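User: New here, please read:
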Amino acid sequence: MSDYPVTYAPAPVPPPAPERSSTHKRVFLTVGLVLGVLLIAQAAVMLVDLSMSKTTTTHHSYPAVAAVELVADGDVHITAGQGAIEVDAVAHSGIRSPRYSVQTTPGRLVVTHKCGSWSWGSWRCSGGLDVTLPAGTQVQVRTSNGEVVASGLAGDVDLHTSNGRIEAANIDGRLTARTSNGAISVRDAAHDVTLRTSNGTIQAANVGGSLEAQTSNGAVEVRTVGGDASAQTSNGRIDVEKVSGNVVARTSNGRVTVTGTGEPVRLTISTSNGSQTVQGATSQDATRTVEIRSSNGDVAYLAP
């Protein structure tokens, strides 16, 4: 054994964790300050917009034409009258105000009342239209954010809103109603009707022609249709009764009930999860067809 003393080297000490660079700190601080300033500015603009808010109505009159197109970003109401086309432009203003304009071509009038696509500082800004026109006028409505109500029209009617309900009554021409987010209600329509919404219920009563009603999320209620009827929803119940033509009633999630007219029909009925009830008259030789389907819900074909 060696007589020399044994020495041991000390264990290495790990270097201290590097501190976050001052550059990163300055970046984060700057971003936070900018966001804070933007939030404060937005709140200030909203307060100013609210303090300046007002509603004004201006009246305009135009000679009758065959077709009228109404473009807005607020509520649109249409009623039948006689003589000239009468337009009340309803402006909801704050920092900004909606712009009103008119374009005319032979047989056609286009009325536009909206704030435009730039939204900063325009929370209170929207342009609506209340219109009275001859009953036989062909009408097209396009509004980006508001309800549409039409009544007493004899010409073809096309109603479209991006966000709002649609209500139509006493329509003698063909009717199309579409909304991305809102309910649709139609009664007393003499000809073919097409109704579509992405999120909302559909109610249709007293349709003289065929009916197509489709929603992604909501119930569908159909009563008294002179032609064929198609009622479809991805999530909601379906109730159909008094349809003279063929019937298609389908839902992915909800019950489906179709009440017959007493005349035998060729019936197709199915559900993946629920009960089946058949009480109405059926025959494989019938000319009329009824299709009832649900992925999850009770299905029934009932006698009147």
Summary: Residues 22-51 form the longest helix (30 residues). The longest strand covers residues 54-62. The chain is about 10% helix and 50% strand. The CA atoms of residues 87 and 131 lie 5 Å apart.
